[in-house]
Specification:
Blueprint lengths: L15 H18 L3 H6 L7 H7 L17 H14 L1 H21 L2 H12 L5 E4 L15 E5 L2 E12 L6 E8 L2 E8 L5 E5 L11 E12 L11 H35 L1 E2 L2 E2 L4 H29 L5 H25 L11 H13 L4 H13 L6
Parallel strand pairs: 1-4
Antiparallel strand pairs: 2-3, 3-7, 4-5, 6-7, 8-9
């Protein structure tokens, strides 16, 4: 069946396996997320019982190879992210934090012993991970982080704080990035280690069906084996962030598509002046603009996915995708909300929930400004971050 938003037969560019993945994840979203998401969002509930179900679908660390990970393609991962975010950004964020951040950190930078110990259990949903990079005073500039790890004999001792850390209060392990006398290093920190404290941030207007936390690290003592041996400097966390940013490029198009389809259906059923809203020129113009941007965003995501699969993906490709698709998706969701009138501010309809969530998605893993400057640096050869 042709996608309602597909003006350009984009489906013809997808393989049979990619289409099968889309239907599998979409079915899960339709059955498990859509009937419950308004209640989860209103009551700020992250449904932990679906973690094992997501693992059963092969969604955790799905793009990673070996160690019990699913080993799916970049485009398959992107499609899964899109379908999950059509349900809710918070649920896609869980998969991103678990797989693209915490698991990727271990997969890219860990020792064989660390990979064998953690990755199979994380892929199975038995262990949840989080990724501690951002700090209260270090968001877009992680190089100014104050968390510090010092050597004490054969151990490491970490002190500092992190903020906006997804899943930290329910995670069993945290990937913590800290300054050391040898530059920025990453550590696997079991969250039951004395001195580790995660506190959920509760007063949120966005991502309410997700968990973000403050972390305090007070004399957290770790053995030498906690250090990720192959990560040194900010390149370590940035390589993980690029994995998460890639998923966002696809994911936000799911939120946009769901909002667009909601607006189409509503405009066809809602009568104004004895005529469906869909019959008015201004309505059709809005729907056309939404559909065009969804199609352009999908083609952008797909091209970036094919570059990733070919081993040709560059950081500026990711910045182009995240900047454009987040910017356009949030506009689509806001315009869809406006088309619903007063009904659009209720949780009966998805666009305003999506728009609120996208305020977070647009901010994390690099703000619009950061990605603009990455692209500006690529175009001009002149870094303008300071």
């Amino acid at each position: 069946m042709t996608e309602p938003s597909d003006l350009l037969d984009i489906d013809s560019l997808l393989t049979a396996g990619e289409l099968t993945m889309r239907e599998k994840v979409r079915g899960f979203v339709d059955e498990r997320i859509r009937p419950n998401i308004a209640n989860w969002f209103e009551n700020a509930v992250f449904p932990q019982d679906i973690v094992r179900e997501m693992a059963g679908l092969g969604l955790l660390g799905m793009h990673l190879q070996g160690y019990g990970c699913p080993g799916r393609s970049a485009v398959e991962y992107g499609i899964a992210a899109m379908e999950l975010e059509a349900g809710d950004s918070g649920l896609r964020t869980f998969v991103s934090v678990q797989g693209s951040l915490a698991m990727s950190a271990i997969h890219k930078h860990g020792s064989e012993e660390q990979k064998d110990e953690w990755l199979p259990r994380m892929a199975a949903g038995e262990v949840i991970g989080c990724f501690g990079l951002t700090e209260p005073s270090a968001g877009s500039d992680p190089g100014s982080m104050k968390t510090f790890a010092r050597r004490d004999g054969g151990d490491w001792v970490i002190n500092g704080s992190k903020r906006w850390i997804g899943l930290a209060s329910i995670a069993q392990i945290a990937i913590i990035w800290a300054q050391t006398s040898d530059g920025v290093r990453g550590f696997i920190v079991p969250t039951n280690t004395p001195g580790f404290k995660a506190t959920p941030i509760e007063a949120k207007l966005s991502m309410r069906a997700s968990i973000q936390c403050d972390i305090e690290l007070t004399d957290v003592r770790l053995p030498a084996t906690a250090l990720l041996p192959n990560a040194k400097g900010l390149r370590g966390p940035f390589e993980c962030l690029n994995e998460a940013r890639y998923g966002i490029i696809w994911g936000v198009m799911g939120a946009a598509r769901d909002s667009y389809e909601t607006a189409v259906n509503y405009s066809q059923e809602r009568l104004q002046f004895d005529k469906p809203l869909a019959g008015y020129q201004l309505t059709q113009q809005k729907l056309v603009n939404m559909a065009l941007e969804i199609n352009k965003g999908m083609l952008l995501a797909l091209q970036i996915g094919r570059l990733k699969e070919a081993g040709r993906l560059k950081p500026h490709h990711i910045s182009a995708g995240k900047l454009n698709n987040c910017r356009e998706a949030i506009t689509i969701c806001r315009d869809a909300r406006a088309m619903l009138g007063g009904n659009g501010i209720t949780l009966e309809y998805s666009p305003l929930r999506h728009a609120n969530n996208l305020e977070s998605v647009r901010t994390y893993e690099g703000t619009d400004e950061v990605h603009t400057l990455i692209l500006g640096n690529h175009i001009t050869g002149i870094p303008a971050f300071r």
